[in-house]
Each structure stands twice: as C-alpha cells, then as structure tokens.
Description:
This protein has one domain: Up-down Bundle (Ferritin), CATH 1.20.1260. The protein is built from 5 helices and no strands. The chain has helices at about 30-60, 65-95, 100-110, 120-150, 150-175. The radius of gyration is 19 Å and the shape is flat. The model has no long low-confidence stretch (mean pLDDT about 90). Belongs to the Dps family. This is DNA starvation/stationary phase protection protein. GO terms for molecular function: DNA binding; ferric iron binding.
Amino acid sequence: MSAPHLRNPGADALRQEWDTVVDNELRLDRDAAARVVEALNADLSGLYILFNQLRKHYWTLEGREVRPVVEFLEDAADRLSEATDEIAIRVHALGGVPVNGPMGIRQHAPMGIEAADVYALRPSLENDLEAYAVLVAQLREHVALAQELGDETTVEILRGHLRTIEEDAHDVEKFLADDTLVRTDE
C-alpha cells in the first residue's frame, strides 16, 4: 500500500516560497534578516533533531535506573518544543519561512541524525550530550550574529533558550557522571 500524497494547493494559494526572505514589518534590513533567518533555521533544525532524539530515548530506554532519566527527557523535549515554536515565529516575523519538514531540516542540519536503532542508556545520553554541545556552540555564534546585525529581539530569544539548553546539557552530564548508569542482571 503506498502512502497517500498531500495535495499541492497550487500556485495561486502560495504566499511565499520555501527558503526565501521577504521584507519584514520589523524594519530590519532584508539582507540582515536573511542572515538571521538562515541562522535561526539552522537552530530550528538542530532543535528538531535533538527533540526527536530525546523522544526516541524517552520511548525506548529500559532498566532499573531509567525513571529519573525518562522524566528528564520528557521535560527537556517539552522545553525544546517551546524553543522551536518561539524561534519559528521569529523566522516568520523576519520575513522568512521556518524549517518545517524533513527536507528543510536536512538542508540546515548542524548535526547528524542518530540512527533509528535503539541504544543502551549511557550511549543514548552520550549522543544527547553531543547534540546539546553542538546546539550550545551554534546558539552562541548566532547570538553574536544577531547582535552584530542589530536584532536585539532575536538576541534575547536565543539567550533565553541558550540558558535552558545549557542547563539541560549540564543535567545530562550529571546523569553520565553517575557510575551506576549501567545495566546489571541481578
């Protein structure tokens, strides 16, 4: 059975093509806005990738000691979802089209996508920590870019989410520092 295809509403319904930036109501120069939109779409891609990775781990982790990890993963994924919403809305306000599907995510991805396989607890968290590290470094660069371009609202948005992502990364580090995160067959 083949998957049904979504109907393309046609050219007359198209408001804006993907990967374009139009003039914005914020009075930010179109070229500056395009640079910020490109950066924010990379951030969105990374957030989507990490969100899906955390959800996968939430669904599949097993063992005696996973309860606090699973609770963290659920909450952390919720925080990433909130970040994607705020950043996507900002992309639209800047005249861009936010990353919104697999093609765009792959196009702007700052990191690889974890294989679909199911991993043990420690390797799963190590993969999560690596993804957090990529996002932290990228968000810091994009805060600096938005500052350079005079987009203070984007600076505020990114700084807020950067703090949250750094705190979550620190929590993952704490889980990994706990030597009991190994599966024993007792």
